[in-house]
Write a structure and sequence with these properties.
There is one protein chain. By secondary structure, the protein is an alpha+beta fold. Helices cover 29% and strands 38% of the residues. Among the domains are: 55 residues, OB fold (Dihydrolipoamide Acetyltransferase, E2P) (Beta Barrel); 95 residues, Helix Hairpins. Helix 2 runs antiparallel to helix 3. The two termini are 49 Å apart.
Length: 395
Amino acid sequence: MKQKLGLLAALIVFLAILGWAFYPKPFEVDVAEIYLGNFERTIEESGKTRLRDRYVVSAPVAGKLARLTVREGDVVQAGQIVALIWPAPPPLLDERRLQEQREQVAAAEASVARAKAGLQKSELVLSQAEADLRRNESLAARGFISPIQIENARSIAQQRQREREVSTQETKSALHQLAQLRIALQRVSGTEPLARQVVAVKAPSSGRVVKLRQQSEAILAAGANLLDVGDPRAIEVIVELLTEDAAQVKPGALATLSNWGAPTKLQARVRLVEPSAFTKVSALGVEEQRVNVILDITSPPEEWQTLGDNYKVDVMIPVQSATNVMLVPVGCLFPRGSRSGLFVFDRGRARINEVELVARNGREAWIKTSLKAGTKVIAYPPAGLNDGDSVDIIE
């Protein structure tokens, strides 16, 4: 009998241990509380500063740029000469092209000689026609020839006059062509006069040189950028927002600038939300539609006098706010159909409650619920947690 009782006791202990081993353990969870407070939803994005009015000075003509004497940060006045440009020298020719140029000059000289000979010939023919006309007019005055012969003589004299004019123009054209080829040959041979008119490039506005795009002497094409001029005291902030965020930002909205290089935060105001968006590829390779939002700094200039052009700033723009509303950490909420849900900590058990999510930011959510402030809720509920499961608070 004692042996049977011992076996029975051992069996009971074994079954108790087995039941305890397979009994579901409670979930270990963190808890938070629902509380009343002020809610604010903001849009946070990195932006950069830029000059409100930037003037890019460019080369008006192609030519050789002299080394710039101005430096970044120098003060310039409107109309001040900031660069000098000489016309570009002609390109160098190889020996074959140079010989061709010389032969063209020789051919042009022969054309000039031929044109001059033609001019002399036309002058002789004209002199003969004029002499014949005078002789015929003398004979006609004495009645020896008819009026028709006089008209023919006059017509021939006029024709010879026109021929001489044509020969004169041909001679001038040949001389001009010869001069043009000789000038080209002078440029190639280096005998061209060095006196060339210099082009002075002037500053379009008063301000400071904020960027040098070309400082050393160089051969530039027309329209090449030389330097940027602007007023560093007139700075604005540009931030690229997603279109869904930009649609909530209105001109005149207040903003805060931080992490710009000083511990103080600057105040700003939205001046413009550009009407057109653009496509930008994110760091993850995703195409995004973004909009430029322009802000004016409203803090006193002495607070941000060290802020320069193209500096990075963090921009925070409030888009929604409320006071004395029911709040809960965002980590307590999870989707539940068309609404949101959370787990209430009820005497060691998890109870699901549905709430209406009004708005949320990165830290807290504004909800409408029948639960009271101070109610404990489970933060970041485990994936396998269900309604009614046993839970323990992590100490």
